[in-house]
Design brief:
The chain is of the alpha+beta class and 299 residues long. It contains ten helices and four strands, in the order ααβαβααβαβαααα. 72% of the residues lie in helices and 8% in strands.
């Protein structure tokens, strides 16, 4: 009986899945939904981390000039920036060039500029930092000094934007973990219920196996495999749907978001994340089977 048990366990597990199609279809759907939600939040976090890396690639301080800033004031600010050892390169951006960049990066918002009848974007200076890992305190001191110069309207430091985007990524991870965790607990309960009904339907068969000397492991293995296979299939389907969403989202929905499409988007799952969803699905199914076996065999 021991030599035959491994093949018999798989055959019985697939037989259970085939005979109780409706119950297992519901369990499968709940598993897919649970891990799909978790996977979508992972994908969203991947996109936010990617955007943060893009923002951090060339750390820069951007100095915006007032509309009435004179050429002398702009020159004085530029000279002060060039003197700083923190700065590697300086680029001046005229209002016309700023408008061209805006239209190129946000084509959906072109009508806003056209309807204004004038260019509202100010002249600016982009100071790229020499050390991308530079401490923030010296940069902030430089910004405070520049802000006090005549003609300066405002300053931005793109590391702060990168930090905010990273914070959004961490928030997405936390929300995904919470919602996905709740749904996964529900899926474990649903799988447990489906497997428990299968066990109860074969109670006489189980009693006979006990009488002829079958071990608990021999009896339980098909039910454990039943949950494991169902869970792994649900995790695989969820991972595939997340990957499909990451591919289709920019084509069908991304453009409608306009300027927000870079932040509200889905990036492909990493190989580890894809495998993690499959393994997580299998684990959820296995836990559901264990819960069902524990309840039935105790009763």
């Amino acid at each position: 009986m021991r030599k035959w048990s491994n093949g018999r366990a798989f055959r019985d597990a697939f037989g259970h899945l085939a005979r109780a199609k409706t119950r297992h279809a519901v369990s499968f759907a709940v598993l897919v939904l649970s891990f799909l939600m978790a996977g979508l939040f992972l994908s969203l976090s991947n996109n936010l981390r990617q955007q943060a890396r893009v923002l951090s690639r060339d750390l820069a301080v951007i100095i915006y000039f007032k509309d009435g800033a004179t050429a002398e004031e702009r020159t004085a600010v530029e000279q002060r920036v060039r003197l700083s050892p923190l700065v590697a390169s300086v680029q001046t951006v005229a209002p016309e060039e700023a408008a061209e960049r805006f239209v190129r990066e946000f084509p959906d918002l072109r009508d806003i500029l056209d309807n204004l009848g004038r260019n509202p974007l100010p002249a600016s200076i982009e100071a790229t930092l020499a050390d991308q890992a530079a401490a923030e305190a010296p940069v902030i001191r430089l910004m405070d000094e520049l802000r006090a110069l005549p003609g300066v309207e405002d300053l931005q430091f793109n590391r702060r934007w990168a930090d905010r985007v990273r914070a959004l990524g961490r928030l997405s991870d936390a929300v995904g973990l919470f919602i996905g965790g709740l749904l996964i607990l529900v899926s474990i309960a649903v799988v447990s219920g489906a497997v428990r009904l299968n066990i109860l339907g074969r109670r006489e068969e189980i009693d006979i196996l006990h009488l002829v000397g079958a071990t608990d492991g021999y009896i339980r293995s098909p039910f454990l495999l039943e949950g494991l296979i169902l869970g792994a299939a649900g995790g695989t389907a969820a991972a595939a749907l997340v990957s499909l969403s990451a591919h289709l989202f920019p084509l069908y929905l991304g453009q409608s978001l306009g300027a927000l499409q870079d932040l509200i988007g889905f990036a492909p799952l990493t190989a580890a994340q894809f495998a993690g969803l499959i393994a997580g699905g299998g684990l959820a199914g296995l836990l559901g089977s264990l819960a069902a076996l524990g309840r039935v065999f105790r009763s």
